[in-house]
């Protein structure tokens, strides 16, 4: 069936739009997850919304299933590889990578799926830097749309990347093209500025789902502040976390700090620059506390590094705010202040400054090499901004990871009410015993957090079907939507467990 599909796509889009070679299938099947690589049946690369619609129609006619992806840099979450083997990867980003429009007065850019953080950053600089991007701390060549649709997030006030999309253009499983919000009316002039127009808000149906392929949208952009001034504080003890959360919450509830506030474990901080010191541990894992303390000292991270930034018209205008924040944290008697000037120079802190200013950075990717063997996965629950809950989460995760031989590497990205608790687990994917321990650890983490009442969010592709199985009524409703929009199951069956 797939041979006739590929022939039909070649006929309609040209030979250059299809690749079914072994090398390319292996490349697009590769990922870092414990579940193993998953090869697609082939890769198709449409160049326009019409071509995407053609691919979808042909897939329906030939009984082929599609895996849409934009730039495939979902490191530790699945990258290009489909949720199931033999789905056909639709690599949208290869030939659909135009910044269609930038509106500097209303603050938005209309982008195709291949537009990357690096590319949009460069375009904004070329235009005189009036607008600021909200980038991730992940791969600079990750894409604006793929990241947002997977509900990725950044660190500026525009951190909620999916929330900052407006006017989605979506190819539906039957090949129809839907424009959401005001875009539903042909020629609407408010398409990229007004989401809440007429009728139900449909945008959410197309994030973390398999109900449509998004071919363009506007991403809203904030005016770039003239001055961005960072601050950071190192706290010495693991159990300082409870107090830190209590200190951060009022700063975010009152918006005294406009960026999100990062609360980064020492090992997540220095892990970007160091490699696991097996020579120091005699091969043992995880990192013994005394070696961790030494590395924390060497990099000045403490057990926790707290960071944020202020925006304003001038250095002078920001000084009183920095002084107030300094007094706020230093009153704990535990915080060591790290000034902006040090943050600029030291790579461990520079990542923080970059992300608060919307600068893509590849420095944090060093975490992927913390331990050898190429494995990485993310465990991503949310933590309410309550000291005692953060402490409970820390103790729960640290215990489970330590018992299974993994390092507790976590960054809490704090808003007013909840933090994204970014746990990265780096492991040796070439060692089957370590992969088995990794799977057991992940299972134990999810089970423990479920029992405590704190579910996971964004999930690696190799665990999505299992994760959906925990949510019977939600699954039933998603399946009914799927049956209505995609009765023959053309788009990525199994993605986020939706069949
Ligand atoms: C060290 C490190 C730090 C990281 N930091 C961050 C961070 O700060 N914030 C963050 O969010 N992530 C972070 N990540 C995770 C990840 O690498 C980024 O989110 C990355 O941008 C996602 O890949 P992408 O942009 O190429 O999206 P893609 O891989 O193209 O897409 C992601 C998923 O969305 C779906 N999708 C994509 N395009 C479409 C479409 N057009 N229509 C329908 N569905 C689509 C697909 O199912 C795809 O699998 C980090 C990773 C690492 C290793």
Q: Judging from the principal axes of the Cα atoms, what is the shape?
A: globular
Overall CATH architecture of the largest domain: 3-Layer(aba) Sandwich
CATH homologous superfamily classification of the largest domain:
FAD-linked oxidases, C-terminal domain
Q: How many domains, as an integer?
A: 3
Quaternary structure classification = single chain
How many helices does DSSP assign? 17
| Mean of pLDDT | 98
Secondary-structure class: alpha+beta
Report the top-level CATH class of the largest domain: Alpha Beta
The overall strand count is 19
What are the key terms here?
499 residues, alpha+beta, Uridine Diphospho-n-acetylenolpyruvylglucosamine Reductase, domain 2, Uridine Diphospho-n-acetylenolpyruvylglucosamine Reductase, domain 3, Vanillyl-alcohol Oxidase, Chain A, domain 3, 3 domains, 8-stranded antiparallel beta sheet, 5-stranded antiparallel beta sheet, 19 strands, binds flavin-adenine dinucleotide
Can you characterise this structure?
The chain has 499 residues and is an alpha+beta fold. The chain folds into three domains: 2-94, Uridine Diphospho-n-acetylenolpyruvylglucosamine Reductase, domain 2, CATH 3.30.43; 99-223, Uridine Diphospho-n-acetylenolpyruvylglucosamine Reductase, domain 3; 227-458, FAD-linked oxidases, C-terminal domain (Vanillyl-alcohol Oxidase, Chain A, domain 3). It has helices at residues 2-13, 22-29, 49-62, 92-95, 117-126, 144-149, 241-253, 266-270, 278-281, 289-299, 315-330, 340-345, 347-356, 387-403, 432-452, 464-468, 472-485, and strands at 18-19, 42-44, 66-69, 88-91, 99-103, 108-111, 131-132, 165-171, 177-179, 213-220, 222-223, 227-235, 261-265, 304-312, 336-338, 374-379, 382-384, 410-414, 418-428. The strands form four sheets. Strands 12, 13, 14, 15, 16, 17, 18 and 19 form an eight-stranded antiparallel sheet that branches. It has a five-stranded antiparallel sheet with strand order 5-6-10-8-9. It binds flavin-adenine dinucleotide (FAD). The site of flavin-adenine dinucleotide has 32 residues, from β3, α6 and β10.
